[in-house]
Amino acid sequence: MPGIRLPRHGRVARLRHLPAPDAGDRQVHDRFFELLAARPDEVKLAVFFMGTVPMIDMAGVGFPIELHANLEKRGILLRLAETHNVVREALRCGGFEQHDGPVVADQTIPAILRQTGMANIPVAT
After folding, report:
1. CA–CA separation, 125 vs 113, rounded Å?
2. DSSP label of 105
3. Per-residue pLDDT tens digits for 15-33
4. Within a domain: residue 26?
5. Quick count: other Cβ atoms within 10 Å of Cβ 51?
6. Of 12, 17, 22, 124, which one has the greatest count of Cβ atoms within 10 A?
7. What count of other Cβ atoms lies within 10 Å of the Cβ of residue 87?
8. How many CA atoms within 13 Å lie on the side-chain side of 65?
9. Which CA distances in Å does 5 have to 15, 36, 84?
10. Residue 16 belongs to a domain with what CATH number?
């Protein structure tokens, strides 16, 4: 599946080029957790780069909400990077921020790493 790579080392997992949420959400979700389970090290933070997602409908809002809940059960923090205004508004309307925390406007991956105290931690991309 394009865009999903989790190398063998690094405590921060990052998905690049996350496809726009659609019917393939379950496939992306399942593949991500399959790769996560195969890692020998402990991941503490997952950062999803949302800069390539121009819009999201209300049905698609369920994907990051479910993903956050499943990561939280494993003790993994989820942050969304470079989320466009339209996507942020849809996430807010869908209740993402109520349960999963704020979606910061155009927040970069390096800013997220600094904010979470993981700027010097190996990153798996």
Report:
1. 13
2. B
3. 544 444 455 567 777 888 8
4. yes
5. 18
6. 12
7. 24
8. 17
9. 7, 10, 23
10. 3.30.750.24
pTM value is 0.73
The domain tally of the chain equals 1
* Statement: residue 76 has pLDDT above 50: yes
Please name the residues in contact with 88: beta carbons below 8 A apart, sequence gap of 6 or more: 103, 105
Residue holding tokens 């190996």?
Answer: 122
CA-wise closest residue to 124 among 44, 40, 42, 6: 6
Burial 15-26 (b: 16+ CB within 10 A, else e): bbebbbbeeebe
5 inside domain: no
- 86-107 pLDDT, tens digit each: 999 999 988 888 877 888 888 9
